[in-house]
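Encode chain A's predicted structure.
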Amino acid sequence: PYQKPHPPLWLAGSSEGSMKLAAAKDITPLTSSMMGMEGVASQFGSYVRARNDLGKSVEDLQMSLQCMTHCAPTMEEALNQLPYIRWQIRAQKALTERRVVNGKTQAEPYEGEMAQDIFLDRTYLGDPESLINKFKRANDIGITNISLWMDWGGIKHENLMGSIKLFGEEVLPVLKDLNPPESSVANAIASAEVEGTFTVTGDRLSADGG
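Encoded structure for chain A:
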């Protein structure tokens, strides 16, 4: 249906400037879980402070988070999909550096690659209970919307469809009515500013930019 002045908009960004632009234009920010929850909290803080400085309401705010996600019956089954996510991240890195040979992306380990424990913390691979806990953690800092990135790196179709089905049956019903605690806004205002610009994979690009 027609929506005036326009349908709801999301602005994908990872810098202080992006958060300020979203605040100024009344657009919902979309960031990445690959920033880590501390980084995401800082970005939410930048958005809240920018709205506050502009004299805009900081009540009932929306903040979106994109997460590389796989839901499986057991943690072991979920972690079996880890190589596919690793490939996706490495492929993106290779593409930004134009490392393509004979039409094939050279998705290889690279210097400075995220350590395994940090990588697992910032991706959402797990059984329903573990995913519910991780998404609740995101909600606690102000996240209200989730964009699930579930089709990546050559994952088998049956595993992808199983993940979508299980998530819809066991995770989504628990999360759908969650709202951030009132303390999330106060915590956001007190948080540190975002420093630098990052890719969706969590790699730092520069100290300024959008």
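Residues 10-206 form a domain with the TIM Barrel fold (CATH 3.20.20.30).
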